[in-house]
Design a protein that fits this description.
- The structure holds 2 protein chains of 2 kinds.
- By secondary structure, chain A is mainly α.
- Chain A has one domain.
- Chain A is built from 13 helices and no strands.
- In chain A, helix 10 packs across helix 11 (about 240-260).
- Chain B is mostly helical.
- Chain B has a domain at about 45-260.
- Helix content of chain B is about 70%, strand content about 5%.
- Chain B has helices at about 15, 25-45, 45-70, 80-95, 105-120, 130-150, 180-200, 205-215, 215-220, 225-250, 260-275, 280-305, 310-330, 335-350, and strands at about 165, 170, 175, 255.
- In chain B, the strands form 2 sheets. Chain B has a two-stranded antiparallel sheet. In chain B, strands 2-3 form a two-stranded antiparallel ribbon.
- In chain B, strand 2 and strand 3 form a beta hairpin.
- The radius of gyration of chain B is 21 Å and the shape is globular.
- The relative contact order of chain B is 0.15.
- At the A-B interface, helix 4, helix 10 and helix 13 of A face helix 6, helix 9, helix 11 and helix 13 of B.
């Protein structure tokens, strides 16, 4: 039982990490209908930029601001160079363009900062919490807990931003209906730029947390692949969906690896989240919190 | 002046329903086939045939398969490389375990195995659509590669998981030289392309296109959705499976499951996007582009920038240029090279008097 709880909690906490990446996807999909495959590359680029700046002896907060500036610039350039000429194209074309963008971002980031694996120290140790270890004999990593705390804070901030600011209202209007939003004078291009900047911010936070855990290397881009099942499980358009989906995927993935993995030779976490999400979709085709889509002829 | 249908009257239904209704097209196609079958093996060097033309043909076949599924039936798939893997490993196992099985039959069995797996992974398409389906096909990609790696039976318990394709032998003739392999691949690809062209202009293809354009409307006019979608998955996977078998037998020789990774799936998707979604000729144009581009980039970097840039940057430069070109193509011609080809043909019809 203790072991089960430990695995479950570990899974839930790692699920929070997946939610981070999924969150960036959802933000962009909600506002512009673009399935942004480059989110994983953005996480990688953000973390690499941060570490690269840090290596020049820049203080932590300034490096954070500078890296955020780079992500904002990247978002603005993407909007100007890639998205604006592709307005009104079918979604698959936009999706392909973001795959192209993935290559460009990965190439640029590695070209500027080099391809070597770097460590990142946030000052929080990856060790079990002592009092919990003593009281219930369950090991919960401090670092994971810190990560989930940051995630909760981030989601709360985003919720406030979306509900209580002018820009947030405009964002929701654009997400609802592009044309209606345009017709009442909401500047669509500005909104897209802001959304990409916010997604860049989320990518930066995700990159820092992931990077501090596993080191900043090219393998960060693969986290995007883990975020995709989270995304279809939670629904493409739902922020709570990204969080809940992440928790479900994270915990079932770990539990399956521990309890089922030994029967089939292990390593099932590469595909189990997808099959899991697929099974879910068969019951609810639009994901847990996705908008119900009604087809009309 | 030379390319117009004026004066070509159709007096029978047979003439009206030809694949190439214009005589010049027929002659052009014949010329291409003659060139491909007779002139190319004699003229091109071994390097070109082995490293460029054979992969080009094999990828064209895979792109053709994906184009049937995505371009004609409208079901976005990111798992085509996995179906290639199924074809390659199934052919290998059929050859290994059934004595004296003709290799062409093994290819067909490999394709059929891929088709069966394709139907299984196509089942979710009956419930989910669009990007949800695309992500769901990733399940096929990861699961199949994992299963082929994990279960030693598929690779005949080779310690590294790598299989070595058997020699190709048909009626006692051994296909050893690149030229003979090229001709074999070309024959198979030409036949399957002809079959695909005929499929998409028959009732099957029309049903696919109706489902692509709007599946609810298609259902209303009496098209069986389940049958149509699963058939598209089966045919597409069959093509990918045969392409995978050829990839193993005629191109690489030794393959491992990891070779059929997500990158390859994306590559095939790029081929149909750049070539033109929903076009047979587009699959070939796109495959040519994607196969030639890295080689051309390599040569250019070697020639122009040799010594100027350190190697780490030049490899990243390739990534950037590759990604940038894809974005550029999507912006300039979202309907792909096939559309450019069509525009060129229409211009040619009016030339030299455009008014």
């Amino acid at each position: 039982m203790q072991f089960f709880l430990e695995v479950l909690i570990g899974g839930l906490l790692s699920g929070v990490m997946y939610s981070f990446v999924a969150l960036g996807f959802v933000l962009i999909y909600k506002a512009s209908g673009v399935f942004n495959f480059a989110q994983g590359a953005m996480v990688f680029a953000a973390a690499l930029t941060f570490v690269g700046i840090l290596e020049h002896g820049v203080p932590f907060w300034l490096a954070f601001v500078l890296a955020f500036g780079v992500m904002v610039l990247l978002g603005a350039l993407t909007e100007r160079i890639v998205l604006r000429p592709l307005v009104n194209q079918p979604p698959i074309t936009l999706f392909m363009a973001t795959i192209g963008l993935t290559y460009v971002i990965e190439g640029l980031a590695q070209g500027v900062w080099g391809a070597s694996v770097r460590g990142l120290e946030l000052g929080i140790q990856d060790e079990p919490i002592e009092w919990l270890m003593d009281a219930a004999n369950i090991g919960v990593s401090k670092f994971d807990l810190f990560g989930s705390g940051v995630a909760a804070l981030l989601v709360a901030l985003l919720a406030l931003f979306f509900q209580h600011t002018r820009i947030g209202r405009a964002l929701r209007a654009v997400a609802d209906d592009h044309q209606a939003a345009l017709s009442i004078g909401i500047p669509l291009q500005n909104i897209w730029r802001i959304v990409w900047a916010v997604a860049g911010f989320v990518a930066l936070v995700a990159g820092l947390i992931w990077g501090a855990r596993n080191g900043v290397s090219f393998s960060l881009t693969f986290t995007a692949l883990k975020a995709l099942p989270v995304l279809i499980l939670g629904g493409f358009t739902s922020i709570p969906g990204a969080i809940v989906g992440g928790l479900i995927i994270g915990s079932t993935e770990k539990l399956a690896e521990v309890y089922l993995g030994e029967y089939v030779g292990g390593g099932i976490d590469s595909w189990f989240p997808y099959v899991m999400a697929l099974a879910f979709l068969l019951i609810r085709p639009e994901g847990l919190f996705g908008e119900k889509h009604i087809d009309r002829v | 002046m030379f390319y117009r249908e004026a004066g070509q009257f159709k007096t029978s239904y047979v003439a009206d329903q030809q694949i190439f209704p214009i005589a010049q097209d027929r002659i052009g196609m014949l010329l291409i086939l003659v060139l491909a079958f007779l002139v190319v093996p004699a003229v091109f060097s071994e390097y070109w045939i082995k490293a460029i033309l054979i992969p080009f043909l094999i990828f064209s076949l895979a792109a053709l398969g994906l184009n049937i599924l995505t371009g004609y039936a409208g079901q976005l798939s990111l798992g085509s490389a996995a179906f290639m893997a199924v074809g390659a490993f199934a052919s290998y196992n059929f050859m290994l375990r059934i004595d004296g099985l003709p290799i062409l039959v093994a290819f067909v069995f490999g394709g059929l195995s891929a088709a069966a797996i394709g139907i299984a992974f196509g089942l979710p398409s009956l419930r989910i659509k669009g990007f949800y389906l695309a992500v769901a096909t990733l399940a096929a990609q990861f699961f199949i590669v994992w299963a082929l790696t994990k279960f030693g039976w598929f690779s005949n318990y080779s310690s590294s998981g790598v299989i070595t394709a058997q020699e190709i032998q048909i009626f006692g003739f051994r296909f050893l030289s690149p030229e003979s392999k090229y001709l074999l691949v070309l024959t198979i690809v030409a036949l399957l392309a002809l079959a695909a062209k005929n499929m998409v202009r028959s009732s099957v293809g029309r049903a696919w296109m109706a489902v692509r354009d709007m599946d609810v409307a298609a259902e209303v006019i009496g098209i069986r959705i389940m049958h149509t979608k699963l058939l598209a998955f089966a045919v597409s996977s069959f093509y990918c499976g045969v392409a995978g078998a050829l990839y193993a037998y005629a191109y690489i020789g030794t393959v491992e499951p990891e070779g059929f990774n997500l990158d390859l799936s994306f590559k095939i998707l790029f081929m149909i996007i750049i070539g033109g979604v929903g076009s047979i000729v587009g699959a070939f144009l796109g495959a040519a582009f994607i196969v030639l581009l890295p080689i051309a980039l390599d040569v250019m970097v070697q020639e122009w920038l040799h010594g100027i840039l350190p190697p780490s940057i030049s490899s990243n430069l390739q990534l950037i240029v590759f990604g940038g070109l894809i974005i550029f193509f999507l912006i300039v011609e979202p309907h792909g090279l096939a559309r450019l080809w069509q525009i060129a043909k229409e211009k040619l019809r009016l030339w030299p008097f455009p008014h």
